[in-house]
């Protein structure tokens, strides 16, 4: 029981406010659509415009008192206050919920008509710790026309209609359908059957309001939150290419609940969590609707302190890792093949609890990045260290804003989980680890090639501060630009990144041949169902990893690639692949890093 002191002077104040604003008038002609309407596409070509009556909102500084004639519960006090403000009978005010914190308590209410709740006529009263009203909001209405409270359309028929229109189903596990009024923009109150409709494949989850007299859909509630991020889009390599604001970049099939689970409003979700050093240091949303729009100041270098740019970096890393989850998911790195997710939605055989942890501006190192891939069911960890003093002319730079590096690191997770069925043990030999570096570079290149006009590809120029800092040659079909052959494996430095360049360059040649033959799809990042060269390439990239042996050699990786083409495309590209591999010395008789340029007979 709260105690609400009876202070008449403040009641007078409250009443004065009430007469000034009264209840929200029914539909002024000047209704601003922006704040009162929501238009949503539900199902194919069906658009529903929902109306929300205009509201009033007032705050009271140190607080206004409520006259209740004595002590009262928060519910009673709220009803008394709403009554005094909007002139609605206490019988027509229903308290729905209350909440409290250390500094305030809030009661939430809705209006009733004919003893039936009105879904879109709501109010709330907030009290401070001295039980004085500090805020009041209301969209209560005085409706002119109230439909009969007895439905004339059966609930079963309403559900059937909505399921067809909204392309989803009402499931038994949902709350039972209810009857509520919905205020429409002409001021009338439509009696509605209210129930949920969902489609897990399409990633939709709605609440439908179907007119219980006309059978029409009068409104929908969309439970899927929209999210906004300011980032370097995945198709851009370097921050110098320009940041952009992206709305809802998630793939609805790969991430049916979006990238933030319900209630999580930080860089934390089912596929990834990005933070600085400890899991508690995630980036918060910058506005209360899953907006993550932060500025990046190039004048402030990344450091081990609380950098001004930290949240931007966390958001970009979160966005890239989630995007890669979604892209690789569509091409086959799913719950059935040991991908990285906290919850698998019951969709496949592997273990959950292994979303990617991304440590940004990690304080335990410098000038590097890495990715650890433990077995299925354990979280992988990507660590991005600041690039700092390396060379007097090296500016300090943050790898979390250079996409090719993040893609490269995530690529290690993909190749390590797919090879050998999720054990994390199958890219361990020098040769296999080198192939791993190659796949990672190749994945980065694939996300950034933009057209059928294939560019030579250089990695990490911005972080390195000049081309060729981290890789010896650009990846190229020209042997003058990139002379690496299979046999270079014995002449380059015996280290996985150097040997890996040979494989990445072979894959560049495979990619160029495929795009030359089948063209380029602009939508390959989100649509795996086309037949252009870059789409075919990513299918075989993912397919081949799962069917190659543990600790593969160059020869085995080539054979797995060509077999993957048989499995998916009946070997349509067999000779094209042999020619591409053979052009770099990995022909039919290649063995032990001795070049062979031959191709099978018939090619
Ligand atoms: C109420 O909140 C105010 C402002 O935060 C604080 O100064 C005061 O101590 C609180 N009073 C009680 C009784 O908690
Ligand atoms: C759910 O969505 C998918 C993909 O958009 C569609 O193919 C399917 O027919 C939908 N299910 C229902 C019940 O409408
Ligand atoms: C960095 O090192 C400290 C102490 O050595 C450790 O507590 C912390 O967990 C490390 N951070 C990461 C991301 O490993
Ligand atoms: C989120 O809120 C911000 C600030 O109020 C606003 O500018 C933005 O349009 C909103 N975004 C969406 C998707 O509603
Ligand atoms: C230092 O950086 C400059 C240009 O940024 C480059 O020309 C030079 O080779 C670098 N030196 C070393 C030792 O990396
Ligand atoms: Zn690597």
Automatic annotation (TrEMBL):
Binds 1 zinc ion per subunit. Keywords: Hydrolase, Metal-binding, Metalloprotease, Protease, Secreted, Signal, Zinc, Zymogen. One of its GO terms (molecular function) is metalloendopeptidase activity. GO terms for biological process: proteolysis. Pfam families: Peptidase_M36. Its EC number is 3.4.24.-. The active site is at 409. One of its GO terms (cellular component) is extracellular space. Its cofactor is Zn(2+). Zn(2+) binds at residues 226, 408, 412, 437. It is found in: Secreted. It comes from the Eukaryota. Residues 1-23 form the signal peptide. Belongs to the peptidase M36 family. This is Extracellular metalloproteinase.
